[in-house]
Design goal:
The chain is of the alpha+beta class. It has 2 helices and 8 strands; from the N terminus they run E-H-E-E-E-E-E-H-E-E. It has an 8-stranded antiparallel β-sheet with strand order 3-2-4-5-6-1-7-8, covered by helices on one side. The protein is globular and about 45 Å long.
């Protein structure tokens, strides 16, 4: 991919757990707001992953992210292998997923995460970055379309 490091092999993936904190973030390199939210939510709804959508902590039907305005708190949790990936909808023009790196305990889960990232990268036509929590400027590795 050139600009970013390639995903490491599983035997080298322990490096993902060496930085401070327990959470790891996934970011989209380029994000087109409303258009990409619609693509992302469609991919999740039609994909093989189990997911749970909540608004203000209560189960809800998944709706388009850009419809949310002040005063509500939506969350989407996606089961990728045994890793729970969370989406907290920080804004129309911002895309960030997070997961607890302690859940990335097996090669199966790592491969499932890479596959999930590839599906997102392909459908969104952008590179998906794996970064330390709240550090999109410090990608550990990336998966491109």
């Amino acid at each position: 991919m050139g600009k970013y490091p390639e995903p490491p092999e599983w035997k080298d993936a322990n490096d993902l757990r060496l930085f401070d904190g327990m959470f790891t973030d996934l970011y989209a390199e380029a994000w087109r707001g409303e258009e990409d939210w619609a693509v992302f939510l469609g991919v999740i709804a039609k994909g093989p992953w189990r997911y749970e959508f909540r608004v203000d902590g209560e189960p809800a039907e998944m709706i388009r992210a850009f419809q949310w305005v002040d005063g509500i708190n939506p969350h989407l949790f996606i089961s990728v292998g045994n890793v729970k990936v969370g989406c907290y909808f920080f804004g129309e023009n911002s895309f960030e997923l997070t997961f607890d790196q302690r859940e990335l305990a097996t090669e199966f889960d790592y491969r499932e995460l890479l596959s999930f990232m590839q599906v997102l990268a392909t459908n969104l036509q952008t590179t998906i970055l794996v970064c330390p929590e709240n550090c999109p400027e410090r990608p550990i590795f990336a998966v491109g379309p």
